């Protein structure tokens, strides 16, 4: 069944290139064997359409206390086929990133608890907003100069925004993710729906499920896994009912 999960993370300077290699399953990460597809876009000209150069430059030139990248990690409906997921992800990227530089990858590892595919999206993007100024790499990540933009770096998307505004933006992103997934689930003829709201906001009187982690799952017996999975499905509204956060 489809379940809703959407979180945003920040990566510090020096971590961007390595993380990009991880999500793209490059180098020794390729042994995981769970990559479905990747993509990128809105890259500055000096990258020659190579996303790795963007993240290497962010690691080198971003301010020491600045985020080198943001990342959205989103669970995708396992009811959808690969081509349907491609279409869904393409629309998500447009909705969530806009014109900012980005790179994404979709992984589909086998769940160690239920033995089913667990497709999810890693969407990395830069907060640096492109404009009409053609900047070299080192200038793109320098401080923005509002009086003379050509002499400074690209403005950051979250610059000057309050914590409340950032929270509202995250809620809007989560809702957009849920709405798009539900559109594709309905088109597929599936009755399952996802909901971006908290259980409390949905009026569901139970605690949110805790992440078990691979180590704890590996310590569970086959019987314990079956029991846990059955309880999870019953809490989510029987075998085929809608699922929540």
From TrEMBL:
Matches recorded under Pfam families: MobA_MobL
Chain segments carrying region Disordered: 142-162, 204-245
Keyword Metal-binding tagged: no
UniProt keyword Lyase, yes or no: no
Bias type Basic and acidic residues, positions: 222-237
Keywords from the UniProt entry: Conjugation
Domain MobA/MobL protein: start-end pairs: 42-215
InterPro entries from the UniProt entry: MobA_MobL (IPR005053)
Family, per entry: Belongs to the MobA/MobL family.
Protein name as catalogued: MobA/MobL family protein
Annotated source species: Lysobacter niastensis
């Amino acid at each position: 069944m489809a379940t809703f999960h959407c979180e945003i993370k920040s990566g510090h300077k020096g971590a961007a290139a390595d993380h990009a290699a991880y999500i793209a399953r490059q180098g020794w990460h390729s042994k995981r064997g769970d990559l479905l597809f990747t993509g990128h876009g809105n890259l500055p000209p000096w990258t020659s359409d190579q996303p790795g150069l963007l993240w290497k430059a962010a690691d080198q030139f971003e301010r020491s206390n600045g985020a080198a990248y943001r990342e959205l990690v989103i669970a995708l409906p396992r009811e959808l086929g690969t081509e349907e997921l491609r279409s869904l992800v393409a629309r998500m990227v447009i909705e969530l990133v806009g014109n900012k530089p980005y790179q994404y990858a979709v992984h589909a590892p086998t769940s160690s608890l239920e033995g089913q595919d667990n497709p999810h999206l890693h969407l990395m993007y830069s907060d640096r907003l492109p404009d009409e100024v053609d900047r070299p790499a080192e200038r793109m990540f320098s401080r923005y100069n509002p009086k003379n933009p050509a002499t400074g770096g690209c403005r950051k998307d979250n610059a000057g925004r309050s914590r409340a505004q950032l929270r509202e933006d995250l809620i809007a992103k989560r809702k957009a993710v849920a709405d798009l997934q539900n559109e594709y689930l309905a088109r597929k003829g599936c009755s399952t729906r996802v909901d971006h709201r908290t259980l409390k906001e949905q009026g569901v009187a139970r605690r949110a499920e805790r992440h078990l982690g691979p180590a704890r799952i590996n310590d569970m017996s086959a019987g314990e896994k079956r029991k846990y999975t059955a309880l999870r499905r019953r809490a989510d509204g029987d075998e085929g009912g809608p699922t929540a956060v």
